[in-house]
Write a structure and sequence with these properties.
This protein is about 40% helix and about 15% strand. The chain is α/β, with parallel strands linked by helices. The protein folds into 2 domains: about 180 residues, Isopropylmalate Dehydrogenase (3-Layer(aba) Sandwich), CATH 3.40.718; about 140 residues, Isopropylmalate Dehydrogenase, CATH 3.40.718.10. The strands form 2 sheets. It has a 10-stranded mixed beta sheet with strand order 2-1-3-12-11-4-5-10-8-9, sandwiched between helices. Helix 1 packs parallel to helix 12 and helix 11 packs across helix 12. It starts with a strand and ends with a helix.
Amino acid sequence: MKATIAVLSGDGIGVEVTDQARQALERIASKYGHEFSFQDGLIGGIAIDQTGVPLPDETLRMCEGTDAILLGAVGGPKWDSPTATVRPEQGLLKIRKHFDLFANLRPVKAYPALAQHTPLRADLLNNVDLLFVRELTGGIYFGARQEQGDSQEAFDTEIYSVPEVERVAHVAFRAAQGRRNRVASVDKANILASMRLWRKTVARVHEDYPEVALEHVLVDACAMHLLTRPSSFDVIVASNMFGDILSDEASVLAGSLGMLPSASLGSGTMGLYEPVHGSAPDIAGQGKANPTGAILSAAMLLRYSLRLENEAKTLETAVEGALEAGVRTADIAPRGGNFNSTSEFTAEVIRRI
């Protein structure tokens, strides 16, 4: 198979982890006889520095000619002034909107080998394997807002339409059919009008999937249940903001935010794949970054954009084997103990492919 992959490394450790994911993809291509080519583009803070905008038109045009996008991370204190009108994160929002990538899939798996690295009791982590389906192109992140200089008032608007909720709900129910047939829909329907529309719409879509069990969970209750009974969840579907916050909270189940991958998908095979973590400028260039999230994002790229399920499983198995063998980056190593560098972790994964 021939495929072209756009690589948008972005800022901070994004540069390091996307390089590791690329190496893993190259090894997969070599093992299975595929031909992957990679094209690099600018996004985020580095794009602002070099072009004045967080997502140059050249990057968009380049991505349009590829099969999938592998992204690192964007942002950092350098571009984080409260008065800044141009921000790295605007590039990420724009590329999601441009390709209509409306569903963000964030799997969270608790690995037995890392149970001692989480703040939760080990018994709470048994059989934790859940999938967040986050609506990605609507909600409060894209609604009307006001933020003006020294004004004493600002606002952001949460807006959802029935079609927006329907399409992400279908993604969640279809995902559950291939898993354990359970969906938890997160909302704040007791307070917010947009969330009452969300709940009614999800309930109506559920009628097309009678074999899937559906529960409606208020967002504050879900935040608690994720830490007290996480194994009870299978697929969790949530709005843009709630999905963003809850999936980051769930990173403690996996041991570190550096463990989590994600896939942003639309109605076709084009997708954007990135680790959930940020740019972590405090450790950039030190070989401390955990490449697991980026490598597992590459596995999702193989699965969802290239339809290479066996190759995706091979890569995921290699990551799990490295963890079981005791290979640890700084964020998942015993406190005060030795740890493996970013490249050493990747080398072990590649050895196991």
